[in-house]
Design brief:
By secondary structure, the protein is of the alpha+beta class. It has two helices and two strands; from the N terminus they run E-E-H-H. It has one domain.
């Protein structure tokens, strides 16, 4: 019997609940961040962010402004 690794978490940035499938297989593994941006996000937050926040940060990271709205 295999148990689902999906967890319900609260996003530390926006406080929304979301499902996290932990590591490979999770929706977030399909988002591509630069190493530098990923390090900034990890330094700012101690846990996973929701899809809404991560996609917003991804869009912001592609703008001309180097400041991420963490």
């Amino acid at each position: 019997m295999e148990f689902s690794k999906t967890k319900i978490k609260i996003c530390p940035r926006c406080k929304r609940s979301f499902s996290c499938q932990q590591e490979e297989g999770c929706w977030c593994s399909k988002l591509k961040f630069s190493k530098e941006i990923l390090e900034k996000i990890r330094a700012a937050y101690s846990d996973c962010l929701c899809e809404y926040c991560l996609k917003g940060l991804l869009i912001s990271s592609h703008s001309k402004n180097d400041q991420l709205p963490l």
